[in-house]
Amino acid sequence: MKPDRVVVGTSSDKAKKVMTALYEPFVRQGNPIIFMDERSAEMTKYAANSYLATRISFMNEIANLCERLGADVDMVRKGMGSDSRIGKRFLFPGVGYGGSCFPKDVQALAKSAQENEYDFKILKAVMHVNDLQKEILSSKISQYFNDDLSGKTIGVWGLAFKPNTDDIREAPALTIIARLLHKGAKVKAYDPEAMENVKQIFGDKIEFSANEYDAIQGVDALAIVTEWNEFRTPDFDKMKQIMNAPVIFDGRNIYDVQVTRDLGDIGDEAFVSEVFTKYGITHVVHLAAESHVDRSIKDPLVFIKTNVLGTANLLQVAKNHWHGNYEGKLFYHVSTDEVYGSLNMGFDLFTEKTPYDPRSPYSASKASSDHFVRAFYHTYHMPVVISNCSNNYGPNHFPEKLIPLFINNIIQKKPLPVYGKGENVRDWLYVEDHARAIDTILHKGKHGETYNIGGHNEWTNIDLIKLLCDTMDKKLGRSVGESRNLISYVTDRAGHDLRYAIDASKIEVELDWVPVETFESGIDKTIDWYLNNQEWLEHVTTGAYQEYYQKMYQE
Ligand SMILES: NC(=O)c1ccc[n+]([C@@H]2O[C@H](COP(=O)([O-])OP(=O)(O)OC[C@H]3O[C@@H](n4cnc5c(N)ncnc54)[C@H](O)[C@@H]3O)[C@@H](O)[C@H]2O)c1
Q1: Which residues bind NAD(+) (predicted)?
Q2: What is the pLDDT of residue 544?
Q3: Which residues are annotated as a binding site?
Q4: Whose CA is nearest to atom 12 of ligand 1?
Q5: Which residue spans of the chain are classified as CATH 3.40.50.720?
Q6: Which residues in 475-499 are b (16+ Cβ under 10 Å) and which e?
Q7: Record: fold of 269-554
Q8: Residue 540 has what pLDDT?
Q9: Which of 96, 223, 368, 553 could form a disulfide with 133 if both were Cys (CB 3.0 to 4.6 A apart)?
Q10: 288 Cα to the center of ligand 1, angstroms
Q11: Residue 153 Cα, ligand 1 centroid: separation in angstroms?
């Protein structure tokens, strides 16, 4: 304990001596022990806590006004706090104060004022602002969803009234959760220490999660309610992947708005335009896409929105920002071999001249985006380049695609759902080879040209799956053939393209790129990565993933 000061209320000389002896070891650096009468001492405590509560409510009102005026309250806070007359502390706006001291002391002081017929206007306002403040976050969430929270799930990070405690007395989280439930939302919550206490209040009306990422699996939005340190630097990419929508209500202003904004949507013109202005973008390497064929069959419109409209938006913003001055500029669009349709078994290969013949909503949306990129080249003379690549594999791959999905299932000893007879052929390329190809094309590609990228590595699905089974049996110390027993054949994917195979001679001859990873070494590295990163795998395969998996393979 290192008190700034010790305040003692007593008029007894004996008590003064005892208290001095008691507290002196704690104020060796000269901080004062202040003696006064009992009433003044009591008032000092109430006044100090009420003043700090007043600063918080004041800042909360400043924050609300900043929002209306378009000012950044975080900058305002920094500006105010560096004035030594004001000081930095207790200026953080948020969802309101709680805990054992502030609410109790403010109320006690207000009550004393009332009993003594004194109208303490500021204190009443402080309490009123704090009550309203606790409701602001839930109101914002509700407004965002057009006042209809039925069927929505909201993740809540933080339940304690402040970090590093399990204290939930007067905690804003309680008001926020009660209001969300009242409006029909489901709530998934996580707090490092306070969950047991909150269970006493909400019981099974809300779901408690094992960690912060579990609490946002499949949620429609996240509310940050307590500023625990572990919430300050999360893996935003992972969050985006596991949440239904990347919507965060930051009740404690812990994230830099710019950082979260930079993770925005390519279809959002204002956002993309802001990024172009802020960073003076000269080169676009466009990979952002909805990318999974199975998902596109279930929900084609999302693919049109991101892949077609999103790409058109990027092109349009680039055109507007570059103003026809295309010197030193490039729009590089990363596409897929699936735009060419399907090959028969045999020796035919997709070349850059193969006519487009997309068969799935995914490939149709990518084909459409390729056309828009070429249209901007021909119509506006924008420097563009396109590459169409075969199937990638490697570490960090989300387990909805074949290789990571099957590695995960083999680890879990779950059935391996093979479409049809597993005869479909894909040409597999290690992801780092694709990345090197992108780098090569970015620097050496000829404007207006298209380059096919492939691994000369055709595998039928069933042979690939058997290879995975056998390699993993060895690595996991399982008996020979054990994982092959997990193979189960399921109804074929609608419109399943039979064979893709790339002729990559153009990029090899003209730009001097060749794949360097052999399939054996690439698969080996990939499996090792998944075996060494099972925590990552567990995080991304709970919640929303489970629902998705059920829908895709078990309906
Ligand atoms: N993986 C392959 O085998 C393969 C092969 C050929 C081409 N491609 C192409 O490469 C690109 C990347 O593929 P991937 O396999 O890494 O896909 P992925 O689905 O793993 O990653 C796509 C990324 O795009 C982002 N994204 C999606 N919608 C967005 C939006 N509206 N605004 C901003 N970002 C958005 C996602 O958050 C994600 O980070 C895609 O364009 C895909 O068509 C992939």
Answers
A1: 104, 169
A2: 57
A3: 45, 90-94, 98, 104, 162, 169
A4: 287
A5: 133-261, 269-554
A6: eeeeeeeebeebbeeeeeeeeebeb
A7: Rossmann fold (3.40.50)
A8: 67
A9: 96
A10: 5
A11: 26
